[in-house]
Write a structure and sequence with these properties.
Structural class: mainly alpha
Oligomer: single chain
Shape: globular
Radius of gyration: 22 Å
Largest sheet: 3 strands, mixed
Number of helices: 13
Strand content: 5-15%
Strand order of the largest sheet: 1-2-3
């Protein structure tokens, strides 16, 4: 009898743990996933104005988001996501497609945050990088995770290393979230400016000439192959955006690369205020 009671108690505990585990680690889909997609109309331009207004309203000049206010007033963002869900990005010109997917990634990242807000980091939303792997969203009539949008679409279909400075994972180590959406006609200029701003930030890239050490964001480590695909490696890429003296130093001298710790703190206006 005693053994039976222990067995029953053990099974109950196992059942509770299994339920918790499945809840924490399950794939979580946005409400649009699974719904029938109405026929989309083929157009040569997609309207990003709604997302542009969201960014202008809720993102400050430092790239920090007022998630509290946005969670309370999500209608404009939700309407933009409705449009993403039924769009036909494959019908757009190439530059329009890239702008579309950059905006989609950033908008869906924000959506993933406000659905689970309050939080202090994307890492706390789903364990083991689940924020990027187990939240599903609908874009163009198909279901995607953020990881699939970044790696299977943007990195696979567009040979463009500068995208790593405009895709924002809602964390301090990411590029700054700009408070304007991306539009095809200014995309080249925006990519160039974002890359320059990232590399000019000493929290992301800095050169210690005395000790011959180049400190770099881990983004350059994680996506090293992308910079080799468009340039002769990481150093060759960043010299295009450094000061003339730093660029010349790197061309003439051997340096050791050290990767900086990545800051996963949420890019939250409220969190920043609470630490001041």
């Amino acid at each position: 009898m005693k053994i039976a009671r222990w067995l029953i108690a053990g099974l109950a505990i196992l059942g509770l743990f299994s339920g918790w585990f499945l809840y924490r680690y399950r794939v979580e889909s946005d409400k649009r996933v699974g719904k029938a997609t109405p026929p989309s109309i083929t157009v040569d331009k997609f309207d990003h104005d709604r997302f542009d207004r969201v960014l202008q309203t809720y993102v400050n000049s430092r790239g920090q988001v007022n998630y509290t206010a946005l969670k309370n007033n999500p209608q404009e963002l939700e309407t933009y996501l409705d449009a993403l869900a039924v769009a036909s990005p494959e019908d757009l010109p190439s530059q329009d497609q890239l702008a579309f997917w950059i905006n989609a990634y950033n908008a869906l990242t924000i959506k993933g945050i406000i659905d689970h807000y309050p939080t202090t980091s994307v890492r706390k939303i789903k364990p083991l990088r689940g924020f990027f792997y187990r939240l599903k969203f609908k874009v163009g009539g198909k279901s995607y995770t953020l990881n699939e949008i970044e790696h299977d679409i943007i990195r696979s279909e567009f040979v463009e290393s500068r995208i790593h400075f405009v895709l924002v994972c809602a964390s301090g180590g990411c590029p700054v979230l700009e408070n304007r959406a991306f539009f095809p006609d200014t995309l080249e200029e925006r990519l160039e400016n974002a890359t320059f701003n990232f590399i000019s930030n000493p929290e992301k890239v800095r050169l210690d000439r005395e000790n011959r050490v180049l400190y770099l964001s881990k983004i350059f480590n994680w996506y090293e192959e992308d910079f080799e695909g468009t340039h002769d490696g990481i150093i060759d890429f960043i010299t295009n955006y450094l000061s003339e003296t730093d660029a010349e130093f790197l061309k003439q001298e051997e340096v050791t690369i050290q990767y900086l710790d990545y800051d996963w703190t949420l890019n939250d206006q409220a969190q920043t205020k609470s630490t001041n």
